[in-house]
Write a structure and sequence with these properties.
The structure is a single chain. This protein is of the alpha+beta class. The protein has four domains: 1-141, 2-Layer Sandwich (Beta Polymerase, domain 2), CATH 3.30.460.10; 142-227, Hydrophobic Seed Protein, CATH 1.10.110.30; 261-386, no CATH class; 390-441, no CATH class. It is built from 22 helices and 13 strands. The strands form four sheets. The chain has a seven-stranded mixed β-sheet. A hairpin with a 2-residue loop joins strand 4 and strand 5. Helix 7 (159-171) packs parallel to helix 9, helix 10 packs antiparallel against helix 12 and helix 12 (248-258) runs antiparallel to helix 13. The longest helix is centred in the last third of the chain and has 16 residues, at 345-360. The mean pLDDT is 93.
Length: 442
């Protein structure tokens, strides 16, 4: 079994071998190479001790990025390669990192400390694939299986619980029953994991091609409510509406899976309906209503996003999508121009993607017919360069003041009136017409 190694990685392995040390590409890069995917990062493990690595690569740049755990980063031909001395770990008192590492020259011992079999493989051009735990077969079968005892793996590093569902989403793989059950039993250990790390794993779960199944699994095992307790009322909540044939949680999971893999859209969909149980009412016919749920969901989402330390820009963008997700987007160009005049084309495109994903996850599919016309109108507005803001008008504040309007709020109000005329008909964005109209309005 051969894996195509980039030239810098091949040079790194060769230099270590010439210096008398065994060396292997290891972990996710081997997994992705076997899957025919382009690895994002290349990691190397070796029998060389950390203080020997700068000497072996004396003509190149090395960075002591993790000496405590035996890691040195090599920069070669512009590529960063993490080189880690083969080791075994002892003690995980903080549920994240080993208390002590013991260096070893045994590749199997090094692989035995890793999380899942698909990540516990190594490769070198001389020895080929090293796969002591059946990772290659699990790749073929699409299975995620812990190396050794699952509960021990999760107890060592609680973040592995979320990594299980991240790989399920990113690879569209299925966790094996023993690993899945252990993740559920160990979910309380996630309280020891930093909120930033939880956020990073959640982001990867939400943007993977297998997100729907991954969210169902993480929910069924109680892990989702461990990190998002606000989600609990949504689980199994019947909507009792002709527009919905799924419970709130299943509707949300389906909606996320229909969205493009853009984090802001996927986050907004995960949280867009969490206020529905609080807003729910039944009418005299036994039909459910959730009037005002968008505002409730927005307020709940704000607390979640702040707790998980999302950047301020991401938070405000997601909250606005949630707040407006129930608003109808018109296909008529004048009305659509008015909508675009506030947030702009990029936001409206994201809002459109969110609403279409939301509607695809409902029982009433008739509303999906309107989206091609809306997209065509949006594309036409952008293509034709229609005026969408005061800044695009052919007159400005100085022109208005020259008509005798004193400086102050009246200038802005008059320009807003002129913009409204132009949004109705872009051909009105003519300097002569606008100056005449401004005089009439005065």
């Amino acid at each position: 079994m051969e894996i195509a190694l980039p030239r810098p990685v091949a040079r790194c392995l060769e230099a270590l071998r010439v210096a008398g040390h065994r060396a292997y590409a290891v972990g996710g890069c081997v997994r992705d190479g076997l899957l025919g995917r382009e690895p994002h990062d290349w990691d190397v493990c070796t029998g060389a001790l950390p203080d020997a690595i700068p000497k072996i690569f004396s003509g190149l740049r090395t960075l002591p990025t993790g000496l405590k755990h035996g890691t040195v980063t090599l920069v070669i031909d512009g590529m960063q390669i993490e080189i880690t001395t083969m080791r075994r770990d002892e003690g995980y008192s903080d549920r994240r990192r080993p208390d002590r590492v013991i260096f070893t020259g045994d590749i199997t011992e090094d692989l035995s400390r890793r999380d899942f079999t698909v990540n516990a493989m190594a490769f070198s051009p001389e020895e080929g694939l090293i796969d002591p735990f059946g990772g290659r077969q699990d790749l073929v079968s699409g299975s995620l299986r812990c190396v050794g005892e699952p509960e021990r793996r999760f107890s060592e590093d609680a973040l592995r619980i979320l990594r299980l569902f991240r790989f399920a989403s990113q690879l569209s793989f299925s966790p094996d029953p023993a690993s899945l059950a252990a993740a559920g039993r160990c979910r309380g250990l996630l309280r020891a994991v930093s909120r930033e790390r939880v956020q990073a794993e959640l982001n990867r779960i939400l943007t993977g091609p297998g997100v729907c199944d991954a969210l169902r699994l993480i929910c069924d095992e109680g892990v989702l409510t461990e990190i998002l307790p606000e989600f609990a009322p949504c689980i199994g909540f019947e909507q009792r509406s002709p527009y919905h044939d799924r419970t709130v949680d299943r509707h949300i999971f389906s909606a996320v899976s229909y969205a493009p893999p853009r984090l802001e859209i996927c986050l907004a969909l995960l949280l867009h309906d969490i206020g529905k149980p609080a807003a729910f009412t039944l009418d005299e016919n036994g039909r459910g209503h959730t009037k005002g749920h968008a505002a409730i969901s927005r307020d709940m989402a704000e607390g979640i996003l702040k707790r998980l330390r999302y950047p301020a820009r991401t938070t405000s963008y997601v909250l606005r999508l949630i707040e407006l997700h129930s608003r109808k987007i018109p296909a008529e160009r004048p009305a659509l121009r008015r909508l675009l005049a506030g947030p702009g084309p990029e936001f409206v495109r994201d809002m459109l993607d969110l609403k279409e994903a939301d509607d695809r996850a409902k029982a009433d599919v008739a509303r999906l017919k309107r989206y091609p016309a809306i997209r065509a109108a949006l594309d036409g507005i952008i293509r034709d360069g229609d005026c969408l803001s005061v800044a695009d008008l052919k007159v400005n504040g100085e022109d208005v003041k020259a008509l005798g309007v004193p400086p102050g709020p009246m200038v802005g109000r008059l320009l807003a009136r002129l913009l409204d005329l132009v949004l109705e008909d872009p051909d009105r964005n003519d300097r002569g017409f606008l100056l005449k109209k401004a005089k009439e309005l005065l």
